[in-house]
Specification:
The chain is mainly alpha-helical and 243 residues long. The protein has 2 domains: 2-72, Orthogonal Bundle (Arc Repressor Mutant, subunit A), CATH 1.10.10; 85-234, GntR ligand-binding domain-like (Four Helix Bundle (Hemerythrin (Met), subunit A)), CATH 1.20.120. Helices cover 67% and strands 3% of the residues. The chain contains 9 helices and 2 strands; from the N terminus they run H-H-H-E-E-H-H-H-H-H-H. It has helices at 2-22, 35-42, 46-58, 91-116, 119-137, 143-156, 166-180, 185-200, 204-234, and strands at 62-65, 69-72. The chain has a two-stranded antiparallel ribbon with strand order 1-2. Strand 1 and strand 2 (69-72) form a beta hairpin. Helix 4 (91-116) packs across helix 6. Mean pLDDT is 86; it is low at 237-243.
Length: 243
């Protein structure tokens, strides 16, 4: 009975801290009061505060930085792998399924970005397109910058829900780099440029169509990769590892 009471109290404290974040008292990246301050402010025990913090960390609302304190996560409540993609062993099949979802979401996102982006956001998208292209042409690793290009477009769509879908988009980009071994470098340059230029021109239809073409390039390549591996698998008794 005592355990249930303590559990309920720590849940209440966790809810109170969450309300402070939602209410704007603590912003993303802000450091929250230390343990002693929370004990005094909330009038609860040390163990209750610690349990509440532990709960919020598990929910990706807070993060503990050793030696620095406890901070509000950059994307509160959104886990790095929110849908458990890492536990799906068929990575090629997963890539195709994710591309189907992106084909539903991202053309619309690009269209809205073209219609709603501010001048500074448009310049940022164009600059990021340049960064990705330069890295590809120099033979450098461009995964992170590719993700940032798509993130900037999603943010420019100015829809409160869309940024929370970014982890799905990002998961696909990293996964595609892995299964294709970054083979679509030329296509990435061409289609990224078409997307960026359409957004710069505030051409919603053009941005939507360019994003569709970008995703279809990836989809066709992965479908061929899957077909080739299935054919190879039929010709040998050794299973093909999609990893």
């Amino acid at each position: 009975m005592e355990f249930n009471r303590k559990a309920s109290l720590s849940h209440t404290v966790a809810s109170n801290i969450t309300d402070l974040i939602i209410g704007g008292q603590y912003q993303q990246g802000d450091k929250i009061p230390n343990e002693m301050e929370l004990i005094k402010r909330l009038e609860v025990s040390r163990s209750t505060v610690r349990e509440a913090i532990k709960t919020l960390v598990s929910q990706n609302i807070l993060e503990i930085r050793r030696g620095s304190g406890t901070f509000v996560c950059d994307k509160p409540g959104i886990a790095e792998d929110p849908l458990g993609f890492r536990f799906i062993s068929d990575k090629i099949g997963l890539a195709l399924d994710l591309l189907e979802i992106r084909l539903v979401l991202e053309p619309h996102i690009a269209e809205k970005a073209a219609e709603r982006a501010g001048d500074e956001e448009i310049r940022g998208i164009a600059a990021q397109c340049d960064v990705v292209e330069e890295l590809i042409l120099s033979g450098g690793s461009y995964e992170e910058e590719d993700v940032l290009f798509h993130t900037k477009i999603a943010q420019a769509a100015k829809n409160a829900v869309i940024p929370n879908l970014i982890p799905v988009i990002n998961s696909t980009i990293f996964l595609l780099m892995r299964v294709t071994n970054t083979a679509l470098r030329k296509e990435t340059i061409l289609t990224h440029r078409a997307i960026a230029e359409a957004i710069q021109a505030r051409d919603g239809d053009g941005a939507r169509n360019a994003m569709i073409e970008h995703i279809l390039y990836n989809q066709r390549f992965v479908e061929k990769l899957k077909s080739d591996r299935e054919t190879a698998s039929c010709g040998t008794s050794v299973p093909v590892n999609n990893e």
